[in-house]
Amino acid sequence: MNRSVFLRLRRWERPLLSVLASVAITGVLTRFEFRSFEASLYDLLTTTGLHVRPNSDIVLLTVDDSTLKDQVELSPLPVRTHTRLLDRIASGRPRAVGFLINLARSATLEPESERPAMLRSFVEAASRLQASGTPVVLGTPYDVTGELLPPYPISTLPHGLAVVHKDGAEFSGDKVSRRALLSLEGQPSFPIVLAETAHLRSAGTPVRGSFEVPEIRARYFHFRYHGDPAAAYLRIPIQGLLSGYVDPKILTGKIVLVGTALHEEPSDFVMTPYTNEAWASPKLALHAAILDSILTDDGLIRGKGKSEHILR
What we know:
By secondary structure, the chain is of the alpha/beta class. About 40% of the residues lie in helices and about 20% in strands.
């Protein structure tokens, strides 16, 4: 090879290497699962390092397996039982009550002839609480038809969608709960309604880290766990209050969330960054973690890079 040919090859060596390196990097990046990386980063931030302590003012009242055995009733207990529970809660003078029970199902457990009276009694008990300065907010489910309200007149009470999101194919695909609904079609979700109704946060204040999903007209945020929710918040089976061996004063000044944690209902449990074991983390505890993160205003911010959002 003569010298002139050698010099021409040397002249193209650097550009050629740059092109080859770019192709190699592009090939790697196109195969890299950025969404899985973001989920892993979230889990790392969640389960390691220093955390804000969980809010000790949030208390969970659960309808669990022992409750059904003790009350000799079907899940999720008749409306009249929840009315008795509200009266017991009221004697403890809590700060707010979030009711995450499927009251439509509870209504079907009442004799049809007595159902209207039982529904009115529940509303009257909630109204007494509200008149004393303790708001009662219902968490409502959602299906393809939209928000599912409890029967009238319970539907007249303050309410909001109580949806627990599980990461599917659009994020990590592992069904772990990392983000929470803040609003849908302009309507605030349950934790926002509860926090604002109880004056725990200013109405209309943006939640840190919230982002829009325009195709479904929804706002979400990646909430921050304050420890494993299965152990972070005080849990009291409701038969403790109904039977009288738990003093309602334990609820004084507390934010009380009422819900089910029944092993016969797999939907009562969720997976978290702390565990993917079945029946380890009650969904009710996750609602507490979401509310806690909203009150602390410490949602994770999505810092937008060239190719993907990264949590920080």
